[in-house]
């Protein structure tokens, strides 16, 4: 989506992208450590829905299998997944379903249409107001770094 500048005065009191039909159902990654793939696919689902009016489940499995900048079910970075989607597009979950196991990539298989892409992405570092401005325009990915002590919370 094009960059849209929003001032602090223009920020809405509330944004819920479910009200705009830009959020798909909750997913279960199972035992595969693919949270990075799910959030990247989810963000692109929402951005595509905002832009086109068509909400479609996209394929975290394609990212797990094919995005070699990440480590499949072991771990990954959502920004690397977004970069992969920018360069390669992403299939629908219907065409490349999730099974929670890293397998050989088959994105070049005949008949595999890739549904969505992005032109780019921005990283927001500058605080709560900047994050609120980004959320006002489109869905965002928020990552939280945790240490071992969080498990005891």
Structure described in brief:
The chain is mainly α and 153 residues long. Helices cover 30% and strands 3% of the residues. The chain has four helices and two strands, in the order αααββα.
Overall pLDDT: 88
State the distance separating the first and last CA atoms: 38 Å
Write down the domain tally. Answer: 1
**Strand order, biggest sheet?**
1-2
CATH architecture verdict: Alpha-Beta Complex
Class from secondary-structure proportions: mainly alpha
Total helices: the number is: 4
Rg? 16 Å
State the name of the first-level CATH class: Alpha Beta
Tell me the helix content.
25-40%
Sheet having the most strands: 2 strands, antiparallel
What spatial form do the alpha-carbon principal axes imply?
globular
Low-confidence stretches: none
GO biological process, one term: proteolysis
Family: Belongs to the peptidase C1 family.
Keywords: Disulfide bond
Protein name: Peptidase C1A papain C-terminal domain-containing protein
